[in-house]
Amino acid sequence: MLNFIFTIFFMGFPGIQILVIVFSILLALKRNKLNKRVYGLFFPIVITLCNIWLISIDRTELFDDVLRFQFFLISFCFPMLITAVIYHALRLSSIYSLLRWKMIVISFCYLIGLVFHLVNTMYWNEIFQGHQTVFNALLIGTSVISFLPSIYLFFVQRKVEQVPTS
């Protein structure tokens, strides 16, 4: 399965990534016009998928795996994570205009998660000196922490729905 994804993204690089970004922006704008609720799950799901695939690649043994690891980050993970951050920023700023400062904080949390994921994966050997278990634990922790803004958005929307309008 992973080799199939590598093949698709390698053959379409950078066209597929640009297409995915443009499609997500158009989808966000369309959903903003419909005033649909947003729970902010796109970024956590994407980062979890990327982390699952990154854990399965051995970065210490073979040059081929290291090359696949770097190419997977550049061609799939980073464009998808950037797309998720742009999508959530557009959706949150339009839907929750009254809670703008909270949405800026949530978007900033997604951006910090993106930067942390970048530093964690690109410079893993310098930071962890080859300790793959610590690296994998941080990837799992990043996935778990990325769901916190979604949980917050869920409770905010429940609270807004319970407030009676007069």
Summarize the structure.
This protein is mainly α and 166 residues long.
Mean pLDDT, all residues: 72
Distance between the termini: 54 Å
User: What portion of the residues fall into strands of 2 or more residues?
Assistant: under 5%
User: How does the overall form come out from the CA principal axes?
Assistant: globular
- The rounded Rg comes to 18 Å
Which regions are unreliable across 5 or more consecutive residues at pLDDT < 50? none
Overall helicity: over 70%
H/I helix tally: 8
The computed structural class is: mainly alpha
The overall strand count is 0
Sketch the major β-sheet. Answer: none
Helices and strands, in N-to-C order?
HHHHHHHH
Summed up, the domain count is 1
Descriptors for this entry?
166 residues, mainly alpha, 81% helix, 0% strand
Task: Write the topology of this structure.
Blueprint: H1 2-11, H2 15-33, H3 42-55, H4 63-95, H5 100-122, H6 124-128, H7 132-146, H8 148-162
Helix pairs in contact: 2-4, 3-4, 3-7, 4-5, 5-7
Description:
With 166 residues, the chain is mainly α. Helix content is 81%, strand content 0%. The longest helix has 33 residues, at 63-95. The chain has one domain (15-33, 41-147). It has helices at residues 2-11, 15-33, 42-55, 63-95, 100-122, 124-128, 132-146, 148-162.
